């Protein structure tokens, strides 16, 4: 097979290019006929999920050289959702996905790399890496950095970093003292890694494995375990094999693989953000499929067989010890298509047959499909006059009695106003908190309403209220919520027409979300409606607001 890099590195007239590599210390042996493998590394000391990636890159590099390749490394940006929560910085998080995808494409094409190992762990970084892989369609493997360990026990379970915000709500409600809140920040994040709950970061690690774009069993190995380094080394070896075979991402990320990933998301009640990201991945892979409709159809057929934080006390280390994604896929049986190809060069079925479980199963974490936690999946798609295109919720993470909920609206035009009202005690049982103008265009950037949900939890309102938004949610949120409302408020969607006191009805079993206001009254409100003027800062956010698609299309720049 002719290597892509050969055009730059093997012809005598390209001596300047070889000279540039040699100026960095590369030798003739490294440049003559060996595949040039890029390591796209999102390492930083800003993001705990990425702070171990510099070390992992060294193990990947060793694996590449052991298999006959030449490793070249470049950096890509990463931003921490947790640090960006609750302020304007969150507006940049989802839009960063497109920048990361573009930057990987640029580096790979400008330098004609033969293959890529893509290192990332967190919410927007992992989907961006898969998007880049299917866009480029050169051999690629994704390696995530692994989850964080759980912290001290608080409120009946091992803590994670979001426990700090839950405690803040408890403080305002008089349920804990200030000393408790201050102590928690020293014990809730005991190691580096992506957060210890099934948020979007770890959800996307699971999705990547389910898609076949990372090694079997790799998604949930904790960041600080030696096994994580073993996986990095093996990933470096495998990428050289993929280049030799010319096995490319579009042969792996097929409609059947996307459906497998959706089934796994449903089975483990993963983050609602997976709907956005799988939609964007399918778009980049040029697949003719409606991912939101697939979520709706497959959710009705796929049982929820796993429960972990935020829907149970078990964290990511517990989930891994229980068998992780291999155990989930095996437990789902013929629901999973095992004939699909993976980045190992073998089928998913072959990988699962060979996989060796190192720890005992835990039936409190992973059940069977014949005796599941719930007969249907953990993610639900709702539609109705409030969400004509789509609304996304996560019934797998809230109490059964909340699956049918009706309440009176308390309307806020931004996240900050809603958070302040919750902390001030202005939300009561039976309210539906509506946060609008936070969609892809209206935010811009489609912020997560993470803090609002945590504050409701802290004030003891998580089982007696609901939250509806054209923004989105963190995978750690629980309680009754519906996000991704489309059309969004900034596009004049019905969510823009809600008034305080309107009745909102959420019916998950029926797949409906309804604003109990007559069509005549809504038409009158629409005639009076004008888009609130909002100053959008110059720069990338202005570009994103102008070009981003709606949430039901993945909020991607199409």
3D structure, described in words:
- The chain is an alpha/beta fold.
- The protein contains 22 helices and 14 strands.
- Helix 7 runs parallel beside helix 14 and helix 10 (200-211) packs across helix 13.
- The longest helix has 20 residues, at 226-245.
- The model has no long low-confidence stretch (mean pLDDT 95).
**Number of domain modules:** 4
- Structural class, by secondary structure, is alpha/beta
Question: What's the CATH C level of the largest domain?
Answer: Alpha Beta
Give the fraction of residues assigned to helices.
25-40%
Average pLDDT level:
95
Strand content: 5-15%
Give the low-pLDDT segments: none
Shape: globular
- Cα(first) to Cα(last) distance is 34 Å
User: Which CATH-level-2 architecture of the largest domain?
Assistant: 3-Layer(aba) Sandwich
The largest sheet, given as strand count, sense and whether it forms a barrel, is:
8 strands, mixed
Task: Give the topology.
Blueprint: H1 6-9, H2 15-23, H3 28-31, E1 36-41, H4 53-66, E2 70-75, H5 81-84, H6 93-110, E3 115-119, H7 125-136, E4 140-143, E5 153-154, E6 157-158, H8 163-172, H9 178-184, H10 200-211, H11 226-245, H12 249-252, H13 255-268, H14 273-284, H15 291-299, H16 316-321, H17 324-332, H18 348-354, E7 380-382, E8 390-393, E9 404-412, H19 415-423, E10 431-435, H20 450-458, E11 466-469, E12 480-486, E13 503-507, E14 512-515, H21 519-528, H22 540-547
Parallel strand pairs: 1-2, 1-3, 3-4, 9-10, 10-11, 11-12
Antiparallel strand pairs: 5-6, 7-8, 8-12, 9-13, 13-14
Helix pairs in contact: 4-11, 6-7, 7-10, 7-14, 8-9, 8-20, 10-13, 13-14, 13-15, 19-20
